[in-house]
Batch of 2 targets.
Target 1
Amino acid sequence: MSKTNKNYYYISYSISLFLITFLLSCKTLKINDGVNRETPIVLNENVEFKDVEKPYKYIFIRLYNPDYTDPFYIANLLQIGINLTNIYPQLVVSHASINFSLEDNFWGLTLTGQPQFSREACSDISDNKYMNKCDPRDSQQLTYAIKVTEEEYYNAKAFVEEYARQEEIKYKTSLNFQFAGFNIKRKFFTPKDHQLFGSINYDSSTREDRLEFDPSYTENNFVCSTFLAYVLNKNVASVNQYFNEQNINYRYVNVNDIPYIPGIVHLFSSTWDHYLDAVDLFVQKYPEFSAYLTE
C-alpha cells in the first residue's frame, strides 16, 4: 500500500473514532424528497426509461435511509461515515438491495443478516436481524428500476438466486475502511469535476484492483452496493459497457452512486411502513408495473 493511501486510511480511522465518540447520538438524516411520517409516500410523476429492444423487463433496486432504534448500533457509524463523505446532498442513503419484482422481499447483503444475504421486507421487519434494528415509521426507502432485455433480466435473476442458494456470499467488513479512505479522498481531496460517478479518476491502487468483465469469474466478498454493481455489470450489457468506457471499478461503487448508473430511474419513495401502500399507488398510476406484484 502506498504512503498516500496509508494516510487516507489513517485519516478515515481517526474520523471514525471521532464519530464514535461524538456523533452516535445524532438524529438520522432524512432524504430530501419530503418523505416522512406526515408525507409517507412520494411518487415520481414522470417515469421514463431509455429504449430497450423487446421483449424487455425491469430489475428493481431499493435504497434505504434506516432510522436505527439503538443509537449505539454499529451500523450507525457506517451511516454517519457515508453521510459525511456524501457528494450528493439531495440523496441520503446507506443500504441497497435488489429484486426482480415489486413484492416486498428484496435481496440485501448486511453484516447482521442471518444469512448475511437475506430477503428484506420493509412492511415486516421481524424476519431480518438487520431490518428489525430499525424503526419502520421513520426509516425511508427509495425504489428504482432499470429496463433490460428479457434475457438480461432472467440471467441476472438466476445469478442472484444462485448466490442465495450457495450461501457463500459474505459481507466484508474491511471493505468499509477501504471505502472510507477512497471516499474521503473523493470528497475532500479531489476536484469537483472528478467527484461525480463516471468522472472519477482512480489512483494506481484502485485501477490495479479493477477486474475486467469475465463471465467465468466469481466473487464472494462484497458490501451491499458493490454486490449490486457487480450483478448489473455482469448481466446488463449497457451497464458493463458504461463501466468499461468510464473505467469504473465496481468495488468502489458507493450506495449513493447507484442512482447515477445510466438507465436507473426513480419510481417512488416512502417510509418503510407505507411501502405496500406506495406500490399500490404507483401501479395505479403506471399499470405496466402491476405484473411485477404477481411474479
Target 2
Amino acid sequence: MGPLIREYRQDDREEVRKIAVEASASAGYPRSDPRLLADLLTNYYLRYEPEHSIVAEVDGRVSGYLLGCLDTRWCRLLKSLLVIPSATIRSLPRGNLGLKELRYLATVIYVSIRGGLRQKSPRGYPAHFHVNVRSDYRGLGTGTSLVERFLDILRENGIPGVHVRVRRGDLKVAEFFKSFGFTRSVGYPVAVSNERGPSVSWSVIYVKEL
C-alpha cells in the first residue's frame, strides 16, 4: 500500500522542517544552525502559501513533503523582505553565525551580482516547488505521488507552467523530473558551502508546460 498523500496541516510543521534539514546535507548549505536552515528552506511556504503544500504519510508518520508556490515573483519578494531578514535576526542570539556563515552570505551576494539566485522565473513557468522524502522511505514512489498531486493542483488553478531547480551533475534528480515531462532550460550560478568553505557552483532550471 502506497503512502497517503494529503494537504499539509500545521501539526506537520516540525516533521517537515526535520526532513528539510536532513535532505539539505548534500545541497551545500551551512549547517551550524539547523533552525536557521529550516527557517530559510520552509518558512515562506508554510507561513504564506500552506494551501499549496502537501505531505506523504505512512503509518501516521510524515514520510515526505512538497512545498509549492504558484507565483515565484511573490515568493521572492516576501523572502527578501520578510523571511530571510526575520530568520537571520532570530538566529543571532543563538550565536551560531560564524565566519563560515558570513563568508557564505558574501558568496551569495557575489553570485547574485553575477546573475544567480534565480531572481526571475522562466517566462511562462511561474510556479515552482521542492520535494523531499525521508531517507528511510525512499524508493516507495512517494516523490512521484507528491509531484503528481501538485501538478494536478497547478492545473486546477490554471497555472500555465512550472519550473524546478536541479544541481548541475545531479543526474538522478534530473531524470526524475524528466519522467514527468520536464525539459532543461537555463543554468545559473549559486552559492554552496562545504568543508573547504563557500564557493560558486551551478544549478539548472527544468520547466514543464501544463
